[in-house]
Amino acid sequence: MSANSLQVNAYSAIDAPSEELGASSRGNIGANDLLIVGPGVLGRLVAEKWREEYPGCQIYGQTVTTNHHDELIKMGINPCSRQTKLTYKFPYVIFCAPPSQTDDYAGDIREAALNWNGEGSFLFTSSSAPYDCFDNGAINEDGPVVPIGRSPRTDVLLKAEKVALDFDGCVVRLAGLYISFETCFS
User: Fold this and answer.
1) If I label 41, which of 63, 64, 70, 164 is the partner at 20 to 30 A Cα–Cα?
2) What mean pLDDT is reported for the chain?
């Protein structure tokens, strides 16, 4: 098999008894292989750029449902559902799932971090919502954050960020992720 070829193996939680669940690979996990928790809009962009940077790497996408697994396979992403027990850890894990899909967002971050082998990096994609700036003024990474207890929405994000940092992961706060640049510049 050439260095740039791709082998896709996907398993569905629907088709296998729970004791048999596991994500498969061509062997062991490579130095540039990536697990994307939440391969939606942002996760798919990450996968595309990652594949450009690291051709031949394995990219896995962990999802809440199996609804989009066929699409992920066509994109070269090995899908697995959240119920799937991964049998190995990854050097790179990025968490891109929104808090709206779960009742325990911080717990989901913890589970994702447990799939990281401590090499490479673990990245949690947060939101700019925790910044204490509600007048559309300028903010930067050193700006003040909303105190815990003021807003349930920001509490969820701040608690999730803390979990990522407790695992020695990184947090990036994104703004305007789902806007059209055509709208902004027209």
Assistant:
1) 164
2) 82
Write the pLDDT tens digit of every residue in 121-164. Answer: 999 999 888 888 877 677 777 888 888 999 898 999 999 999 99
pLDDT at 176: 75
Phi-psi domain of 149 (left: phi exceeds 0; alpha: psi -120 through 50; beta: other): left
Q: Which positions of the chain have pLDDT values less than 70?
A: 1-27, 136, 177-186
CA geometry: angle 106, 179, 103, nearest 5 deg: 20
Backbone angles phi, psi at 110, to 5 degrees: -60, -45
8 A C-beta contact, residue 121 and residue 169: yes
Q: Which domains does the chain have, with CATH numbers?
A: 34-132+141-174 (3.40.50.720)
| Residues 63, 9: Cα–Cα separation, whole Å | 15
* One-letter amino acid of 148: I
Q: Kindly report the backbone phi and psi dihedral angles of residue 157, in degrees, each rounded to the nearest multiple of 5, phi listed first.
A: -70, -45
